[in-house]
Each structure stands twice: as structure tokens, then as C-alpha cells.
Amino acid sequence: MISRSVEAMGTVFNFYVDAEGATKEMLSDAIDEAVLVLAHIETRFSLWIHESELSRFRRGEVQEPSSEFDEVMLLCYKALEITGGFFDPWALPGGYDPTGLVKGWAIEKAIEVLKVNGVRSGGINGGGDVALVPGWRQQIGVQHPRYREELCAIVNVENAVATSGVYERGSHIINPIGKEVSGVSATVVGEELWLCDALATALVAGGEDVLFLLERYPNYEGFFIDRYDHLFKTSDMNLNTSNH
Predict the structure, then answer these.
(1) From CA 87, how far away is CA 64, in angstroms rounded?
(2) DSSP-derived secondary structure for 146-200
(3) Torsion of CA 189, 195, 197, 202, to 10 degrees
(4) pLDDT computed for residue 79 by the predictor
């Protein structure tokens, strides 16, 4: 197993790849290429880079968005519809802000690079958002939002899992429909990481309203923890919980 950590998009991305069927040099080159993809996406979508496409778009300076920008915006429209409006990049302060799903989308792009370069087993963890190379199943621990050194649950993951909350960066999540967010942390397991990312953000915002929508959406399961440490989950969400 080869592991590497890199900083990008305001967080740390941890790469884990198995050497099965490839040399260590090949795997190292694959990771290098995937890191370049993350760096490219950061320059396009970062709110901290003044000349990024997203920053210029929010200032009204982009007349013809790039194909990547259009792709992300289409995913945002889909997530807005699926979550019943609880994930709304257009409702955030300062204007359109797709960063609630861009990180998951970026990790999936990096996973595609690993696959093309011969990686058969592995995954990428970017700040709690995890995507796996297809066929590499894992049990992944979810940090407890209040007890920082403990896990609140262990989930079985076949493709992707995303965790979102208001405990790492403060109140960066808003409820576009109500006054307060419902949860302090939420986790969603499913097929595509960009959607898990958006759904986890929506679960923090909307709580049980979004959990009800999630019950009807195939191949996605999730749970959230409210401010009183109560855990709510979809009926088919299998997890091992802590004592808290």
C-alpha cells in the first residue's frame, strides 16, 4: 500500500493505493497526475483565489463559462432538486457558491485518473469525503462532532461517503428554507461522491425533512446528529455506533 497526503482546496487529501498489478513507480506517477487534477480544479473553483473562474463569475466577469464550470453548475441544479431546496448554492452569501459539492466532484475526477493509470485498489479521503476505486470496499470511521477523539459511527462503503458539519469551520452551512440548521454533523453513503457531498450538507441544514427525501432516493443512505447528540438515520443505513 502506498499513501500520500497533499494539501489542496483548503483541506488535506490522503491517497491510498494498492501496489497490486503495478509498480510503485507507476502508482506514484498516477498519484502525481491525480494531484495535478486537484490543483487545476482548485484554481478554477477556489473562492480564495482572486482570479479563479468562480471568483470572476461572482463578480460578473465571466461571459462564457468553461465546460467544467457548466458541468458543476448542472450538478448543483440536480442537487437543488433532489434535496428539495436544502442544498442551494445560489442562496449563500456573496452569490453562487458550489463548493458544497465541488470537493466530492474533484475527488471523483482524481479517482478516474488513478483508474486510467492502472490502480485497481485504493481511495482518496479529502477532509472526510471519501471515494474508492470500484471494487475496493472499506469500513470507514466517522468522527464524532462533539467528542473529537472518538468515532460516532463506522459505515460500510462500496463507492463513496461524505460527511459535513458545522463543527470544523463554524457556521458555514445555512438552511435556505428555515432559520437554523438542524444538525451538527451528517454523513451520506452512496454511488457518487458529489451527490453524497451535497446530500450531507443538505442533511445538516434540513435534518429530518431531508432524511425523508433520502429514504426515497435509491442507493443512498445517511444519518445526522442534532445539537442534542441524537442520531437520526435512514431505515436501511447500516452502521456501528459509539456509546455516545
Answers:
(1) 25
(2) SSTTSEEEEEEESSEEEEEESSSSSS----SSSSS-SEEEEEEEES-HHHHHHHH
(3) -100
(4) 97
- Per-residue pLDDT tens for 197-222? 999 999 999 999 999 999 999 899 99
Grid cell of 217 as nine digits: 432516493
- Sheet containing strand 231-233, strands side by side: 2-8, 11-17, 122-126, 129-132, 160-165, 183-190, 221-226, 231-233
Q: What own/partner pairs with CB < 8 Å and gap ≥ 24 does 47-54 have? A: 47/94, 47/97, 47/99, 48/10, 54/96, 54/97, 54/98
Give the predicted TM-score (pTM) of the model: 0.93
Exposure string (b/e) for 137-170, b if CB count within 10 Å is 16 or more?
eeebebbbbeeeeebbbebebebbbbbbbbeeee
Which structural domains are found in the chain, ordered by start?
A: 2-241 (3.10.520.10)
Q: Please identify which residue in the block is written with the cell numbers 431531508.
A: 210
**99-116 and 193-206 helices, crossing angle to 10°:** 160
Q: How does pLDDT run across 96-117, given as a tens digit for each residue? A: 999 999 999 999 999 999 999 9
Above 50 in pLDDT, residue 170? Answer: no
Q: Please enumerate in sequence order all residues whose Cβ is within 8 A of that of 63, keeping only pairs 6 or more positions apart, or say none.
A: none
163: closest CA among 192, 193, 191, 137? 193
Tracing cell 440548521 back to the chain, one arrives at 181
